Amino acid sequence: MKITQAERMLNLLALLVDRNRPLTLRQVRQELGKQYPNSDEAARAAFERDKAALREMGIPIETKTLGGDSAGEVTYWVNRSNYELSDLKLSDDERIALQLAVATVRLGAQHGEEALWKLGGEKVLRPTAVSVNIGFVDQNMSAITDAVMQRRTLNFDYKGEKRQVDPYGMLSRSGFWYLIGFDHLRKDQRVFRVDRIEGKVSAGQIRAFKTPVGFDVAASVPTEKQMMAAGDGEVTTATVLVDASLVAGVRDEFGDAAIVKERADGSAEFAIPCANMSAFRLWLFAMVESAEVLEPASVRMQVIQWLEQLAGDK
Amino acid sequence: MPAKKPAKRVAAKKTVKKPVKKVTVKKTVKKPVRKTGRRGPRSAAQRVTGLLVMLPWIMQRKRVKISTMAKQFNLSEAELIEDLLMASVCGVPPYTPDALIDVFMDNGMVVAEVPLLFSRPLKLSTAELFAISVMAQTALQLPGANKKGPLSTALTKIAPLMPTGAETIKVELPRAKFVKELREAVATGERCDIEYFSPASQKRSKRIITARKVFEDAGRWYVAADDHQSGEDRIFRIDRIEQIKPVGIFDQLNDQDDQDQQWFSEQMSQVTLRVEPSARWIVESYPYISRVNKRIKNIDVVDITMSITSQHWLGRLLLRAGGGVKVLKPAEYQSLGKKAARTVLDRYNKSGATS
Fold first, then answer.
1. Are residues B27 and B100 in the same domain?
2. What CATH number is associated with residue B322?
3. Element (DSSP H or E) covering residue A158
């Protein structure tokens, strides 16, 4: 009778775990009987396949080459403590809280559910009242998160250049994942959008670098506000009148300190950074006709010029 | 070969359906009927990986309905039964009943009462550690979350498993007023009066809604709700809700699972845009349906087809792109950018004349 590879793999693992001592392939074949093919060559090939697949699953099969009488023969064993999860002693409340978190946050991969099962939890099948989508669908995400967590240097193509990056951290902000790290090409810390990485990333050895002391992920990725202030234009601030309907949003973004004047109709004048004019334009025109540059005249003129060009008046 | 389990244990379980021989097992197992979503037969490695997760899980629970367990692990019942039957004839030599994995099916239930082999779960992979910690960290940031509650203590217990470096992976959620209030309204089914600002019409409107789901997507908060004015399901941006007041009327809770529902899908129409290098950020910032790179008059352009939520949104996009984008299709949208620019220009002309 023929046995499936899945069945044989399960039996091999059970044997290596249960015997709790190193076994040679010869001994394994003796124990497992006809589960491996009769010919030495075919049996060896099948065993190697099983071993590789088990290792791929995260089961460390240890090996040692024997000396003396059995010189050259290899022994195999599995140390349970190397692959079994120790009991984290999660309380029921803690497990339920994790279940809810996994049900609420959408990552686009099944890893969260798998973690839950291993922690003795269950995936929640009912819909939750709230959900958050921090999309994790990029082909490189697993490799990149692994590199960040294990401090592996990454190699990838970005904007047509080959980059070698020590990944210090990752940030999910406004629907995008950013990778922050030391760029060996630029010899400086840089921010990369994960979805703009071209092709596949490859990762090096673990613990390849040290993250600088005081590294702060969130502070490393400039916000829209910081981008607008980070240009080299001569004029650094413009006064922008924002209609009442959008005042709350702008105040949230730039803070109360940016308010120059509040008008009776609920609209407000804000002092907005504009050193980077193209970033400023993106921000300003997002409000369409609900916002207007008042001062300085040079910035107001520039805005009118843009509009005239687009409207085809001149 | 496996023989019968020891009489003592068999007696304890009324109708033991444990197969006696491997051969009979194989012949009785039908080809699994696959659920949609996965293609092709499962590999040996996939099946073993699945079992190494499922076995400790079921041993901890001892008895679970077959249908419940299949749903839990995203398998068809036939696939689950096939895998568990296989596991039940695996074990260690000499494969006597007491040396086999103790799992069997009885009267619609999966039963695993004696944890002999594979009773402890595997360690979490880095991908799993990343997922669970990032999900917990994100959930802790939700408005109204108990920052010192069980989720936070669970994270503390998981922390020692994390490799160094994991602490530098962060998720930032947008802030919006009323997320907490709307979340409570979803849970209770209570109707709310809202005052909503619509940028498309530049108007504020009062509506009565029953909130059904609060969600965050690409940096913004939304609420999907029954809009009692129009009688339709609508999606509102929470940052545009200016007032909210519960009205004391409660609607029946909506328990439908929306996992496969496409957000926004109904309210969209399709456009095709030609994007020049100066407006390349559009290609990188918004999801598109298809994309073609072209070289026209020595310029590298990209033609993208995308879904839009409103004409107003598209007009705004064209304005922001400052001439770097042309609408190819549909024809009636081709002058939207010009129109948007004129509207804004009108404002500058008016205020320039009066000041």
1. yes
2. 3.30.70
3. strand A154-158
